Amino acid sequence: MLTQGNKNGVLETMKPCCPNRVCWSPCTSRRTMTDADIASTSVTTPVSRQRVPWSFPQWIAHRGAGKLAPENTLAAFRVGAGHGMRAFECDVRLSADGVVFLLHDDELQRTTGVKGMACEQTWSDLSRLDAGGWHGDAYAGEPIASLESIARYVLRNRFALNIEIKPAPGQEFEVGREISRQVVGLWAPDPLAHRPLLSSFAPDALAGARQGAGELPRALLIDTLRQGWLDEVQALDCVAVVAAYPLLEAGIIERLRAAGVRAAAYTVNDSAEAHRLVALGVDSLITDEVAAFSPASSGVRVGRTAESNAPRS
Fold first, then answer.
1. Cβ-count burial of 102 within 10 angstroms (0-12 exposed, 13-18 middle, 19+ buried)?
2. What pLDDT, in 10s, does the model give residues 208-249?
3. How far, in Å, CA of 25 to CA of 44, rounded?
4. Residues recognised as catalytic
5. In the chain, what are the domains?
6. 74-82 vs 147-157: helix axis angle to the nearest 10?
């Protein structure tokens, strides 16, 4: 169960699973897709629809700055911006007392050195952890970032943001709904800013996000072309699919275009693959290589040039 503070500061228990939640059967198989697989796992090509506007440039910085700084920290965003990146991807979770914060793993150990499940900790405890020292002495003491702090930085610099929802097992719908509501509130002060893209591997989390803030764009993350994947995308009114890059072949791109759905790829760190995906018409590429693939680099041609002004803190 999750708790959140009401207007009087009293912690309240969030309601259990919504009876209208969307449920899907997970698929854990991982193998190279063949043409037969693509044909058998895709739905009948729908009547072509006009694709939604896309606010992201060609390159999106993975977890802030790839591997150049401690992932999912404000320091990482600043490093990525220093390399010319104008769009970012990050992972978010919900603390035990309802604060949205950035962290990829279920557990704290890898990036903070502290044992325990992240979702079981209060923000007061999480905010005191060192999320930078594991990456090097230069980042020692860098705290876990709250989404509130990232929102301020992104809005001030007019950056685009892809927020991946990482729900605790069994709480997918509730976490997706709560995070989406908080995102709306954080971006409310700037109605002209691009709305963040909410993505998740968990369809239930996206269903919760649709109920909590249906106006925010959503994307289904996929690492396999499981049976009915495109049905899920359409049932959840997703504007995009964010796929492991080996999955994106010409036939898949054609089906997404016909459905009016955008395509993004993760995690693209190889120049040859980047050229292949751009040639296919993939809309955006998520990368760790922010120094090599950015608006300021001479790498794969980008769709949007970097702004001349330096990012602001």
1. buried
2. 999 999 999 999 999 999 999 999 999 999 999 999 999 999
3. 20
4. 62, 104
5. 32-105+147-287 (3.20.20.190)
6. 20
Q: How many CA atoms lie within 13 A of 266 on its CB side?
A: 23
Residue 261 has pLDDT above 80, yes or no: yes
Nearest to 56, CA basis, from 178, 148, 149, 161: 161
- What is the spatial distance between Cα 210 and Cα 223, in angstroms, rounded to a whole number? 22
Q: What tens digit of pLDDT does each residue of 60-87 get?
A: 999 999 999 999 999 999 999 999 999 9
Give me 217's structure tokens: 């764009």
- Overall pTM > 0.90: no
Residue 257: Cβ-neighbour burial (10 angstroms; 0-12, 13-18, 19+): middle
Among candidate residues 82, 95, 77, 133, the one with its CA nearest the CA of residue 2? 95
Please answer whether residues 159 and 86 qualify as being in contact, where contact means their C-beta atoms are separated by less than 8 angstroms: yes
Tell me the three state secondary structure of residue 154.
Answer: helix
Quote the strand ranges of the chain, DSSP E: 3-5, 11-13, 59-62, 87-94, 100-102, 160-165, 197-200, 218-222, 240-244, 262-266, 284-287
